[in-house]
Structures are given as structure tokens and as C-alpha cells.
Design a protein that fits this description.
269 residues; D-Maltodextrin-Binding Protein, domain 2; 21% strand; six-stranded mixed beta sheet; alpha/beta
């Protein structure tokens, strides 16, 4: 099957040139195996992710579960598959979490988190905003944070803010941290993980509702079968992934209620 080009984008996990190349290699394999022509784009920061997720030519684009969950069922992009990380925290499921991180060379304990200066990425992020607020609320029992700083946009912004001393702690998507440990260990060398948040459904690959059913079906099947293909298996391993799995849409649907509960307890950071 050959079609006109659709876009593929791993913007959420384009953490370095080396990591971006690994995603490009996977998307080229996906195009070859599925028969769907894919144009790999960067849509680099600070271009808004909302613009990417609104594009009618999405073929295989990573989307955070929280904004996905906020759309009506008939307005959502079409879910293709969600990653399953090789990391222990995934437990073989298409879930992720956020690591709460601080500077490695500073004396800082879990008990200090209640009075720490917290950094956050963007308010429509599960990993960079809702997950750390949920973690903080469990620690502080409804007590407001001393100081919060954001938007820091992405994991790189969190790392830089900790390095500069602008914040004491921040949250980094645990899969993003995994990729950095694998490919750019010097970027996370100044950090240490103090805690890990509750799991949430992994950001998923989506396609535009304007894509044909045949294109969507071919991309979805190829993703779900990727770990069974020797080349696909190796490309997944280079990305710290065991496989792609069928997304649990009900798990995404529960994210807004989790966020509202934290809004009621803490308010907006």
C-alpha cells in the first residue's frame, strides 16, 4: 500500500540529536513495513504542541494523554498504539510515571520536598505538571507549595533550572529520563531521583481523523507487531522499548478527574 505523505513526529521525546535519529530510524522502518509514506518532522520547541496535534496530516505523532483525554470522543485523534518501556517501573504495561529529581550534589531529602521550590513544564502536561502536583499533594496533605516556577517547557528546561539553582526539584517524564540515561548520560549526571509518581497511561501515537481507515489500520497493526519483527525489535530496544500495545482508552479518560482532584486540593501552580 502506498499513500500520499502523512507526518510522523516524536517531538515529546526528541531530547537530543542522537535520540531524534533513533526515532527517525524507527519511523522510517514503520513507513517501510506499513506501506504508508511518512514524512518525519521535528516541530521543535518552542512551536506549540497544540499546533502539531491539530494537524490534519498526522500519521504517527506522539500525544500526551492529558490533552488527549480532554477532547470529546468524536474530536480526538485516532489512537494507534502506546509504548511499553523496558524499565522496571513500567511492569510490562503501557504506562509511565515521572521521576522527581534534584541536584545530585545538594543535600536534599524526601522530607525537604514540602518546602522546596518546584518547577513545572506546561499546564497541559501529565508528566510535567499534573503528576508532580499529585505527588506533592500526597506529601503535603493539601498544604500549598512554597514556590513554583514555570513554564519550563520540557525536561531540558527542568534540568537547566535545577543546574542553575532556579528550582530545587522538578519532575521529568520517567521514559524521557530513561532515554537520557541510555543515550545522553551526561545530561542527567548532575541529577538524582528522589521519588517517582503514580503511574499514568503512556503518551500514545495518534493519527488524524482525516486519515483513511486503511492507513490507520496498517500503521496500527505494524506498531503492534513491531516487537515480532527482528529489525523492529532492535529499533525498539535502541529506544528502551519492549513493544507497542493497544492503548487503554478508559485509563486516559480517568486523567481529567485526577487533575480536578488536585486542583481542588492545591489550586493552580
Amino acid at each position: 500500500m502506498t499513500t500520499s505523505a502523512a507526518i510522523a513526529c516524536s517531538r515529546m521525546y526528541n531530547l537530543s540529536q542522537k535520540i531524534s535519529v533513533s526515532w527517525e530510524n524507527f519511523f522510517h522502518w514503520l513507513a517501510k513495513r506499513s506501506g504508508v509514506e511518512l514524512e518525519v518532522i521535528a516541530h521543535a520547541a518552542p512551536a506549540p504542541l497544540s499546533e502539531l496535534w491539530g494537524r490534519p496530516d498526522m500519521g504517527a505523532v506522539f500525544m500526551c494523554g492529558f490533552p488527549f483525554s480532554g477532547l470529546a470522543a468524536d474530536e480526538r485523534p485516532l489512537p494507534l498504539a502506546a509504548p511499553v518501556s523496558l524499565a522496571d517501573w513500567a511492569k510490562g504495561q503501557p504506562v509511565y510515571a515521572s521521576h522527581i529529581v534534584a541536584a545530585r550534589d545538594r543535600p536534599f531529602s524526601k522530607a525537604d520536598l514540602v518546602t522546596a521550590r518546584w518547577g513545572w513544564t506546561v499546564r497541559d502536561s501529565q508528566s510535567g505538571y499534573n503528576a508532580p502536583r499529585e505527588f506533592f499533594a500526597a506529601l503535603a496533605g493539601g498544604q500549598p507549595a512554597r514556590e513554583t516556577i514555570g513554564p519550563l517547557l520540557n525536561p531540558s528546561g527542568v534540568v537547566e533550572a535545577i543546574r542553575s539553582g532556579a528550582i530545587d526539584v522538578g519532575a521529568i517524564d520517567a521514559y524521557a529520563y530513561q532515554l537520557l540515561e541510555m543515550h545522553e548520560p551526561e545530561m542527567v549526571a548532575p541529577l538524582r531521583v528522589i521519588g517517582t509518581t503514580a503511574p499514568a497511561p503512556f503518551p500514545l501515537l495518534v493519527a488524524s481523523r482525516r486519515q483513511s481507515p486503511a492507513v490507520v489500520a496498517s500503521l496500527r497493526k505494524t506498531l503492534l507487531d513491531a516487537h515480532r519483527d527482528p529489525e523492529g525489535h532492535n529499533l525498539l530496544a535502541a529506544l528502551g522499548l519492549a513493544a507497542f500495545a493497544q492503548p487503554d482508552i478508559a485509563a486516559y479518560d480517568r486523567l481529567p478527574a485526577r487533575a480536578r482532584a488536585i486542583d481542588d486540593l492545591l489550586g493552580v501552580w
